[in-house]
Amino acid sequence: MAALIVAVWSVPPSFWSRPVFTAASLIALRSAVLVLRAARQAKGQR
How far apart are CA 24 and CA 16, in angstroms? Predict the structure, then answer.
């Protein structure tokens, strides 16, 4: 998680205005949701 934050901070500001960022953010959000769901299911099984 910390590595992700560091990676985000190291990205140049010019990158954030590009359409690529929109796609990257959507992918990151989707993967984060999947990870959270998996963690929730793991807690429920215990």
Answer: 10
